[in-house]
Amino acid sequence: MGLKCGIVGLPNVGKSTLFNALSNNKAEAANFPFCTIEPNVGVISVPDERLNILSGLVTPQKVIPTSFEFVDIAGLVKGASKGEGLGNQFLANIREVDAIAHVVRCFENDNIIHVDGRVNPVADKEIIDTELQLKDLESVEKKISKVERAAKSGDVKARKELAVIQLFRDALLAGKNARTVRTDADDRKAIEDLQLLTDKPVIYVANVEEESVHTGNKHVDALKNLVKNEGAEVVMVCAAIEAQIAELESKEDRDAFLAEYGLKESGLYKLIRAAYHLLDLITFFTAGVQEVRAWTIHRGWKAPQAAGVIHTDFEKGFIRAEVIKIPDYQKYKAEVAIKEAGRLAVEGKDYVVQDGDVMHFRFNV
Fold this sequence. Notes:
Elements: E1 4-8, H1 15-22, E2 40-45, H2 49-58, E3 62-64, E4 67-72, H3 87-94, E5 99-105, H4 121-152, H5 156-173, H6 185-188, E6 202-207, H7 218-227, E7 233-237, H8 239-246, H9 251-260, H10 267-279, E8 281-287, E9 291-298, H11 303-310, H12 312-316, E10 318-324, H13 326-332, H14 335-340, E11 345-347, E12 358-363
Parallel strand pairs: 1-4, 1-5, 3-9, 5-6, 6-7
Antiparallel strand pairs: 2-4, 8-9, 10-11, 10-12
Helix pairs in contact: 1-8, 4-5
């Protein structure tokens, strides 16, 4: 399944620097607003040590990690909801992503200008929230106008739908994001077609200076306090450090560089892990002599759905799934030995795939 995360934020908060660290596609990073005109897209391989374990056991011709697509979207300013700056383009691009990585400036640096002349993560977040809320409100109002006509004619379904949509309008008018509205899954279908911007899951990326990479600072504290009730993820990174790591060729050099800063992992790992947690994603594997491969699915998916990620025919003609746990692979070394030990499970259509499962699907189309 293709997953896409949009990197957003005000100009000069470190979006393009972070994107460059994430991807081999280099966005222009400059000390002025709107240096990124078109959205830059980078496909990032998701690091997973379990791939190395399986590769060592199976010795395949190739190893294919799962991937995550990051989109560096042009900066936003006040008035974007009305088309100011690059607003219309920004808002069109952000509708297409599964989640938002909202980069917030949490560092002081007199050499890097702020679009509003000050460092205030709370105000920065509120600017973007307001613009997205205004755009969402516009979409909601248009739908209300359509549904109201059917509701007034006595359509029971339309009346129920209208009541749900009005909940979202009330929240947006109160300056709240759509994701804060508490409704059940069935009611939420009333706004699915609108692709509301403030309904998308969000990770707040606190971009700090090198000195604050371990402890954070007052700006990070203010941001965390502001979003504590949103159910959002907050990840602290130093985009400047990430950019330096990205320039290093070998894993040994990268590990040594991280060690110099006392870091166990890069911000990239933290960001991807936060995205997986936020979107409730897991990974399963297929393993054979041709390839060892990782696949991303939503937690709770059953075996046929997981098979469909590989090929639609696998889901249509699903017969069964043969499942091996990685610890068993490590213990018995080979699939034949795993079968002989009775550790290969044969599962049917109702099997809920677990994170880390190694799966082989049997199907007939």
